[in-house]
Amino acid sequence: MDHTSSLGLSRISLQNMFMNFTKGLIVTALVQFVLLIRCCNSIDSITTDQAIRDGEVLVSNGEVFELGFFSPGKSTNRYVGIWYKRDKEKTVVWVANRDDPINETSGVLSIGAHGNLILYARNQSNITLWSTKSNVSISSSSTPDPKYKAQLLDTGNLVLVEQDNQKVTWQSFDYLTHTVLPLMKLGINKRTGFKWFLTSWKSEDDPGTGSYTYAIDPNGAPQIILYNGNVRYWRTGRWWWSDVPVVLATSFSNSTFLNNQDEVTVTWDLLNSSISTRIVVDYSGTIQQFNWYEQDLGWNQIWSGPTDRCDYYGRCGAFGYCDSESINVFECKCLPGFQPKLPDEWNMRNASSGCVRKLKSCKNGEGFIKLVKVMVPDTSWARVDMNLSWKACEQQCLRDCSCLAYTISSNAPIIGCMTWYGKLVDTKNFADGDQDLYLRVDALELGILFY
Ligand SMILES: *[C@@H]1O[C@H](CO)[C@@H](O)[C@H](O)[C@H]1NC(C)=O
Ligand SMILES: *[C@@H]1O[C@H](CO)[C@@H](O)[C@H](O)[C@H]1NC(C)=O
Ligand SMILES: *[C@@H]1O[C@H](CO)[C@@H](O)[C@H](O)[C@H]1NC(C)=O
Ligand SMILES: *[C@@H]1O[C@H](CO)[C@@H](O)[C@H](O)[C@H]1NC(C)=O
Ligand SMILES: *[C@@H]1O[C@H](CO)[C@@H](O)[C@H](O)[C@H]1NC(C)=O
Ligand SMILES: *[C@@H]1O[C@H](CO)[C@@H](O)[C@H](O)[C@H]1NC(C)=O
Ligand SMILES: *[C@@H]1O[C@H](CO)[C@@H](O)[C@H](O)[C@H]1NC(C)=O
Fold first, then answer.
1. What's the gap in Å between 254 CA and the centre of ligand 7?
2. For the ranges 59-63, 151-155, 253-257, which has the lowest average pLDDT?
3. Contact present, 186 and 197 (Cβ < 8 Å)
4. Is the pTM for the entire model greater than 0.90?
């Protein structure tokens, strides 16, 4: 029995040897093939058994974006990021481990057992420094060991896909860092409370979470606001009538605003594939948009903000009005019917205490003064009623003693009425604008102005 068994064994061993030999050939061929792929046709994805080490990259299929390890500015820390492939400067648009740097080059990005991307450093005891937190529940999966693929798309989106059913379980576009790219969303998922917003880096050398955020405030009429910490820093001047889906287009892009039961979001899309564009909030609190046309050698800034004295949020306090047109004149005024709360301070060109109403009266012959071409006050304190006529809007404001001002939609066919309560903050002139503000004033003030 032993003999047969040992014979059997040795036959098996021989067979194994042969199979191992052929396997070896195949493996060698495969390795060479893989090396060949790695060398000349870069890969755009890794699967459950593969990894990206520091020095290796993923390149999106159309060679638009590249993912790999980098050190920003003067830093020697290593981060996993995504940048434009053709950009010699490696302008980074997304960072994975922004607050968890690796201090040397032993980083490895791979897909862990639970279908999440994990980043660890071989030299830091293999501790996971960063990982995606996708909502994959292992038990609910049909196969016992589902395979995942992490793929870098030409849009700049890194997606984690369950291979059996092509379900996207995580995407970098949901975790914005300091850059908005076309097809990313800004806004809020009303069902889950999940927010899409930008956060600046800490400095040029540190992509860690900085203090400036760029987000949609859904209150009143939704608007995009730049915050420093929790404090409003700049209103972009973009706001929307609630509930009305809006598509806006420029020569090369269109944006869609949605406000329904599920979400309040704005998405932005490119209409010309030969243009690259990105909006960045930098560590000093400046927002800039850059374009790169096919024929260009690099990025061109097309706008930035905040730019002038009146851009800083609430520059002239509550009920103030900011006008930076005249260079040598104090930019702050009080709205008609209001006067400085603290005249001494105001005369020292400090408007932070704002203005107060001269006369307080209600239902005593008040009317409205029209301020033309203004950026309307912070719309968080506004109420929006759609389908009200101009007259009905005015009546609605007059009826309520706490109503301070109103404006109506200037772009037909949307008929909107917006009324303000509480306070009017961050009102300023906006020469390029087409919105007028109707400010409620008492009869006497109307008299002063018109006679
Ligand atoms: C990197 O950080 C680890 C702790 O996370 C530390 O033990 C190690 O000494 C650091 N290495 C260098 C080169 O600073
Ligand atoms: C890991 O650390 C050792 C010594 O601490 C160092 O010699 C080696 O270069 C490091 N490896 C990498 C990949 O950084
Ligand atoms: C993931 O699951 C948690 C817990 O069930 C939930 O709170 C969260 O909203 C989910 N996230 C997403 C993006 O679905
Ligand atoms: C932009 O316009 C195209 C074509 O009209 C449309 O298919 C796409 O959905 C729009 N994208 C956005 C974000 O509005
Ligand atoms: C797209 O942009 C390129 C480069 O600026 C321009 O030459 C081309 O006319 C544009 N195409 C369209 C359809 O606007
Ligand atoms: C303006 O006045 C406020 C007090 O009302 C004060 O806190 C602030 O420092 C003053 N600003 C300047 C620039 O003097
Ligand atoms: C406004 O009126 C139009 C047509 O009368 C109607 O289709 C639409 O639903 C109304 N919108 C709102 C917000 O009431």
1. 24
2. 253-257
3. yes
4. no
Per-residue confidence (pLDDT) for residue 198, from 0 to 100: 98
Write down the domain spans for the chain: 1-41, 44-175, 186-306, 320-449
| Mean pLDDT value of segment 235-244 | 82
182-211 pLDDT, tens digit per residue, is: 999 999 999 999 999 999 999 999 999 999
Neighbours of 227 (CB within 10 A): 19
Q: Which residues line ligand 5 (CB under 6 A)?
A: 272, 274-275, 293-294
CB of 256 within 6 A of ligand 6: the answer is: no
Indicate which residue's Cα is closest to atom 3 of ligand 7: 387
Q: What is the dihedral of CA 11, 13, 17, 23, to 10 degrees?
A: 110
- Which pLDDT tens digit goes with each residue over 339-380? 999 999 999 999 999 999 998 878 888 899 999 999 999 999
Nearest residue to 398 (alpha-carbon basis) of 446, 438, 451? 438
Give the nearest ligand 7 atom to 244 CA: 13
Gap from CA of 385 to ligand 1 centroid (Å): 59
For CA atoms 299, 197, 424, 421, the dihedral sign is positive
Nearest one of 386, 415, 404, 426 to 223, comparing CA atoms: 426
One of 2.40.128.270, 3.40.50.720, 2.30.170.40, 2.90.10.10 is the CATH number of 44-175, namely 2.90.10.10
